[in-house]
Amino acid sequence: MTTDKIKAEFLRAYEEYADAIFRYSYFQVSDREIAKDLTQDTFTRAWEYMSSGKSVENMKAFLYRVTINAIIDYRRKKKPLSLEKITEAGFDLVDDKDESKDKEIMFEGQQAVEQVAKLPEKYRDVLMLRYVDDLSVAEIAVIVGETENNVSVRLHRGLEKLKNILKKNG
Fold it and tell me: Considering the entire predicted model, what is its pTM?
């Protein structure tokens, strides 16, 4: 593949997936600046891979896999934030159009993040990919390197665990 074709493919991938990669990173680390850094790191790694002449069969799955690896690298380097710090920082979801509605949505978002954070990572990851990033079971299977059946089971069990957590907390 020529350099121009690689650049075009990379730019198309960036335009199409950068927001989703950022959103996934943000939900994983709960820090906007770190999520930006992880997104940048993902696309830097992708560029290095592609410019070395290697081809990418499924760009979406490839980018999510690179992002997951970048998040793992980040977590190994740095202690994870406590859940208290995450909730203190707030959950910026909407514009300042209707302040009372915004506060209600922020509070609900904080509660959702708290409850999902209580799940084991294997369930939390597939739930986020499915319900935040709206990926199909097949796409998630490629990203996490599992069969579609295993992903479906994790989604089902993760939802059951989340329901149990929500029942306990009223």
Answer: 0.64
The residue ranges of every structural domain in the chain are 1-80
Residues 6+ apart with CB under 8 A from 99: none
Render pLDDT for 49-108 as a digit per residue (tens, 0 to 9).
999 988 888 999 999 999 999 998 898 886 545 555 555 555 544 444 555 555 566 666
Supply the pLDDT for residue 99. 57
Environment class of 77 (CB within 10 Å of its CB; exposed 0-12, middle 13-18, buried 19+): exposed
The fold of the 1-80 domain, in CATH, is Rna Polymerase Sigma Factor; Chain: A (1.10.1740)
> Is 112:169 a contact under the CB 8 Å cutoff?
no
User: Which tokens in the block code for residue 83?
Assistant: 């859940």
